[in-house]
Write a structure and sequence with these properties.
Elements lengths: L9 H10 L4 E11 L7 E11 L4 E6 L6 E4 L3 H12 L3 E7 L14 E5 L2 E2 L2 E2 L3 E6 L3 E8 L3 E6 L4
């Protein structure tokens, strides 16, 4: 039987480790807006960028295949240009400063203590991550096929 699990690359794991201990300055969400059908415009969260006080950032997105998460190096301007050319303007990329939203306002100015991921043998599953900030503020990021990133509050049970 074929293993269908998707795992983080060593590069993604290194990005998570590098982000730990940094103070969050702002959160930017990049949204894809698909207007192919004018009667049913669809928006999905393509990625979330955590910008830190020391000018570093961590960008969490779907992987290239769309079947797992990844920590990527993201160029919004180039991606917007590529999308415009490939989809003739029917898919657009928008950057939204989500720092003041209910989901993220409590983590601004807080330290990202750890990025939690599930270990499977000697690998780490790319199905979800938990961002654990100081003062027990936690957010879970996962993906849903065709829906992009799903971001939610997380509490220990």
């Amino acid at each position: 039987m074929e293993n269908t699990e998707v795992y983080f690359s060593n590069e993604a794991l290194a990005r998570f480790v590098a982000a730990q201990g940094r103070t969050v300055e702002k959160i930017i969400c990049h949204l894809w807006q698909n207007s192919s059908n004018k009667n049913d415009v669809v928006e999905i969260i393509d990625n979330v960028e955590l910008h830190f006080a020391d000018k570093q950032k961590l960008t969490i997105a779907c992987n290239v295949k769309g079947d797992g998460l990844d920590a990527i190096d993201f160029d919004a301007k180039q991606t917007a240009k590529d999308l415009h050319e490939e989809f003739e303007g029917k898919i657009k990329l928008f950057a939204i400063d989500a720092s003041g939203t209910k989901m993220w306002q409590e983590v601004i100015g807080k330290t990202l203590k750890t990025v939690r991921i599930t270990k499977d043998g000697e690998y780490y599953k790319a199905d979800a991550i938990i961002l654990d900030f100081e003062n027990n503020e936690m957010r879970e990021i996962s993906i849903a096929p065709l829906d992009g990133l799903i971001i939610d509050y997380y509490e220990e049970v």
